[in-house]
Amino acid sequence: MSLIYRRRANQPSFTYVINDYMGEIKPFAKRIDNKLLILPLLILKTIEWSIYRWYKTPIRRFYGVKGNELIYMITKRCNERCAKCGIWKNPEPENEHIDISIFINCLKTLHENLYQVTLTGGEPLLFLNDVLKIADESRKYEIQLITVTNGVLITEDFLKKYAELDHILVISIDTLEKDKWIDFRGKNSYEKVMENINLSKKILGKNLQIQSVLADESISDIPQIKAFSKELEIKHVTQPYMDFGGVWNNVKTKNEKTNGFACAARKNICIYPNGDVVKCFDHHKIPLAKEPLGNISKEDIIQILCKKRSTEVSKIMKTCNFSCKQLSCNVPEIIYN
Ligand SMILES: C[S@@+](CC[C@H](N)C(=O)[O-])C[C@H]1O[C@@H](n2cnc3c(N)ncnc32)[C@H](O)[C@@H]1O
Ligand code: SF4
Ligand code: SF4
Q1: What are 263-318's pLDDT values in tens digits?
Q2: Phi, psi for 7 (deg, rounded to 5)
Q3: Rounded Cα distance, 280 and 202, in Å
């Protein structure tokens, strides 16, 4: 199987090459402040892209200045029991949860390459103090932090500290109907989350966003959530239902797997609660990436990213075409900004 992927990576279609090129050049161009430098830097970037595109290289390569996103699944533990998601069914035991200092070291090492750190889970706010430590460290390096939460454990004190650091909080909701809520979430948390959305809006302002999952089960609820978000002037984002071990069904759309855009997962450096490093959380679909690339509690993150297999996996990702490429973390644009 890996041979098939390699062959595809070396013989991409014309559309893929164009999308791949644009996917790198556009965000790179946006980061150039000095207009006089745009042309020379784009030429250099194009040369770099061409070298990497057509020649195998074992050396470490990052995608321009601050081109990477560090995504930390801080825990698989969760206080909710969502039907759409199966992550809560496999909480990590205590000995498979790295100390926050290990992640902070990784962040320090990588900071020059990062434009964003994203915290997901499980429920990140089960580790509220650790989230604040990461928020603080990210601010020191002027890196945007996005924390994605189910909204239950938010406190006023947390919001005030988080607001001072000017980071983004994303609250996930898939219905506004009280009766459906318990079926969706497995817990009777409707009132608490609604109260916390209002409080978050008051304290975070434009740094609060709402995210919903589009599935057969939630499709009729999305317009209402969009209208609600609009009324409160909160940005709303939808992402398609994927197999996270849940029991929902995805909405059938035509050409679901062939939307023509290259997956942008290569910008991502993903860390599991035990410190394992992968390039996307769907890496098990790529035979060469079934095993993690390394573990930040045992090796330096740079050494892990310099491995030949890391480079090979990135190359395979250039033409990877599973539906998971549509997840917000795998699209080229920084959708949260
Ligand atoms: C896995 S959750 C972890 C963070 C937090 N517990 C929450 O629910 O927001 C991260 C995001 O993935 C979304 N999500 C959950 N199950 C999903 C699925 N099956 N397909 C796509 N997105 C999903 C959640 O709605 C949330 O916005
Ligand atoms: S979607 Fe989030 S809140 Fe729901 S079970 Fe999964 S991790 Fe927990
Ligand atoms: S399509 Fe899916 S498996 Fe392939 S690189 Fe993107 S996120 Fe990973």
Answers
A1: 888 899 999 999 999 999 999 999 999 999 999 999 999 889 988 898 889 889 98
A2: -65, -45
A3: 34
Minimum CA distance residue for ligand 1 atom 13: 213
The set of protein residues with a Cβ atom below 6 angstroms from ligand 1 is 78, 84-85, 87, 120-121, 123, 148-150, 172, 211, 213, 239, 241-242, 244, 246
pLDDT tier at 337, thresholds 50, 70, 90: very low
Q: Do residues 79 and 153 make contact, with C-beta atoms less than 8 angstroms apart?
A: yes
Give SS3 for 309.
helix
CB 259, CB 293: distance < 8 Å: no
Instruction: Give the largest CA-CA distance in the chain.
Output: 58
Rounded to the nearest whole angstrom, what is the distance from the C-alpha of residue 93 to the centroid of ligand 1? 21
Q: Say how many Å lie between the CA of residue 317 and the centre of ligand 3.
A: 6
CA trace torsion 47, 62, 313, 322 (10° rounding): -90
| Nearest one of 282, 246, 294, 279 to 98, comparing CA atoms | 294
> Coil, strand, or helix at residue 84?
coil
* pLDDT tens per residue, range 73-120: 999 999 999 999 999 999 999 999 999 999 999 999 999 889 999 999
Question: How far is ligand 2, taken at its centre, from the CA of residue 174, in Å?
Answer: 11
CA distance 256 to 75: 30
Going along the chain, which residue ranges are E strands? 68-73, 114-120, 144-149, 168-172, 208-214, 235-240, 268-271, 276-278, 294-295
